[in-house]
């Protein structure tokens, strides 16, 4: 389920709220869970960049928040937080990308599946190992959120504002009768149930999972924006309660670690948003997304640059990329495939393409309280979304 979007608020909530409160952290201490085989965790150093994998996990309703076994991660977002550049980057990973699943120790299992199946096979350890291979980057911490967390959290902050630009009311009751909330068109102040539907719907979206992930990132920005405006003890207690029953993470949150977490406070205000996506293909009667080598390498280098690592010229990945999977190995075919990918469908980032350069120009979002102004900057980046427009 699309609940990794709640995870980013962990940092935001504590960075902007916990330091103002004087109460026990027992409510959230139970969220701490080391990965299997993770004997010792290196303490967080808030002067250095941090890479976090956010996963939204959907389990059976009867065991939700209690038993995480058998759940599936329908949403995966890589987040890099850099206190040196004072920026946070969110990169959505399309669930249907075709990858070779890695075992928890990082070795290949030889199994080729959709990306989100890595969680089903081995929960967080296998999902992390697979994505580290996919994006050629080390993941420092993970956060997984169960679906009830989104409803409770949005209600705790008093609702959030979203902008339904699809031209029709958003609902998922036909596919999932238990969810009856509706999000009308245009700008709306929505409650938790509506936010869940807004972040979950994909079947009626012309862009499917790509459109859904764009709405997830919109919800992230809206939640963080509300958190920056909160100043009441009661509201923060509600947020802690919402998080404590629906989250697992190997980020330690206690009086000793809170000062370090607060060191990231200036990095959370500016959010840059990206999307790893591919070409739709049916292979052996199974739907996959196949990214091109050039697109995937660019996304890898965006992550590396965001945490101060050297960019690479050659792709290292466990992804079954488009041109190799279909045998299109010549340089001219690789170029044509990449160009075709950029022209696929009418999506916001595709509409900003420079036809000569084959790149997209878009804006980043600075998340600030309502009384402050937005700061926008532009830079070329394939797959980067236009936020707040």
From TrEMBL:
Biased composition (Basic and acidic residues): 372-389
Compositional bias ranges of the Polar residues kind: 359-371
Pfam families referenced in this protein's UniProt entry, alphabetically: LytR_cpsA_psr
Ranges where the record places region Disordered: 354-389
Every Cell envelope-related transcriptional attenuator domain range: 72-228
Similarity field: Belongs to the LytR/CpsA/Psr (LCP) family.
Name of the protein in its database record: LCP family protein
